Amino acid sequence: MRQAGILAGVGLIFAYLLGLLPAVGWIFSLLGVILFLVGVYRISRIANDERIFRYFLLPMILSFVALVVAFFGLMGAALSALALDVFALGASFVVLLIVVLILLIVSLVSYVKAYRLLAEVTGVSIFNTVATLYKWSAILLVVFGIGAILMIVGSIIAVVGFFSIEEKTSSA
Question: Which residue in 5, 53, 73, 150 is a FRET match for 12, CA 20 to 30 A apart?
Fold first, then answer.
């Protein structure tokens, strides 16, 4: 399980940290998502609980859907701007924002379930902290817009959790 945890942790580092690099960041993000999902898949197989993988896979799929929705929404907004239709432009942005927020909240709820289950299966309690941070980020993202900071902190703590899997499970 240690190797799977390291793979998932490295995947998160690639996806979140190296993904910020200009020009090539998207390649590292894609590679990071693949490494993360392979690591989580291995953990779910070792733990004999497929829910772990499914709970982590859903947000990845919803992120892709959100990107497609955002792309077409921005294209619609651009066409509205070209037509000088201010009402349609505003409506496009509002609908786009609502749809993307709903997809993000559903993703965060799935992450909360995944990290709670991961904490239970691996015995690494730091994953419960990650789940709590993701839960509050979902609430604060809508209410105050500062939930993104909690998501970043949660991701950093998740990396630590994935790298800690063996130490916690071998003593349990």
Answer: 73
Parse the chain into domains and list their residue ranges: 2-171
| Tens digit of each residue's pLDDT (9 = 90 or more) over 94-118 | 888 888 888 988 998 999 999 999 9
Q: What is the 3-state secondary structure (H, E, C) of 71-130?
A: HHHHHHHHHHHHCCCHHHHHHHHHHHHHHHHHHHHHHHHHHHHHHHHHHHHHCCCHHHHH
Task: Categorise residue 77: left if φ over 0, alpha if ψ from -120 to 50, beta otherwise.
Answer: alpha
DSSP 24-80: THHHHHHHHHHHHHHHHHHHHHHTT-THHHHHHHHHHHHHHHHHHHHHHHHHHHHHH
Average pLDDT over residues 5-23: 89
